[in-house]
Specification:
Helices cover about 35% and strands about 35% of the residues. It is of the alpha+beta class. A hairpin with a 5-residue loop joins strand 5 (about 140-145) and strand 6 (about 150-160).
Length: about 170
């Protein structure tokens, strides 16, 4: 049996992380406007991390309370981790989502991530990866969302320095 100790350490680190950095105050409306005119924008925000026992109903038990409370998922990823499922969510109202999921009995941690709103075209992620590497920013996890016919996508970056990540990504043309 193969056990990835780096993943186990990362999971333990994620569940014990506390946010000491304040999020960028750019609103979603400002991000959308800037993306439309320039093709890029980045902001630091919070990500909700939930680790739950792996069951076939995990998706519905996590998303149903959010749906009932009109919380929209902006960007998310899920993956199985042994006998558990890890959910990483960015919503339109993380404070409300946090409260809803806590009251549903979940252990919810909020960690900072950078959302990069960028053009949906070949090579964009490579430009980000190159810029972050040159800035010596360590990336722990990324996930994205885009519509096939959309010219914009959003990529979430969990890094060792979310605010600097936001600065670096905002400079990519």
């Amino acid at each position: 049996m193969f056990i990835d100790l780096a993943l186990i350490t990362q999971k333990e680190d994620l569940m014990s992380t506390t946010t000491k950095r304040s999020p960028n105050t750019m609103s979603s409306t400002q991000v959308t406007r800037e993306t439309r005119t320039t093709g890029y924008a980045a902001r630091t925000t919070g990500e909700l991390l939930i680790v739950a026992t792996n069951t076939s109903t995990n998706y519905t038990t996590i998303t149903s309370p959010l749906n009932r409370n009109n919380v929209n998922l902006e960007c998310f990823t899920t993956y199985k981790w042994g006998n558990e499922t890890c959910f990483r969510l960015v919503t339109d109202n993380n404070k409300k989502a946090y409260e809803v999921l806590k009251s549903a009995g979940y252990n919810v941690q909020e960690t900072p991530v950078t959302l990069w709103y960028t053009k949906n075209e070949p090579g964009r992620f490579n430009k980000a990866a190159d810029a972050l590497a040159k800035a010596h920013i360590d990336t722990y996890c990324t996930y994205s969302t885009a519509m096939p016919d959309s010219n914009t996508m959003v990529i979430a970056f969990d890094t060792n320095d979310p605010n600097r990540t936001s600065e670096v990504l905002s400079k990519i043309k």
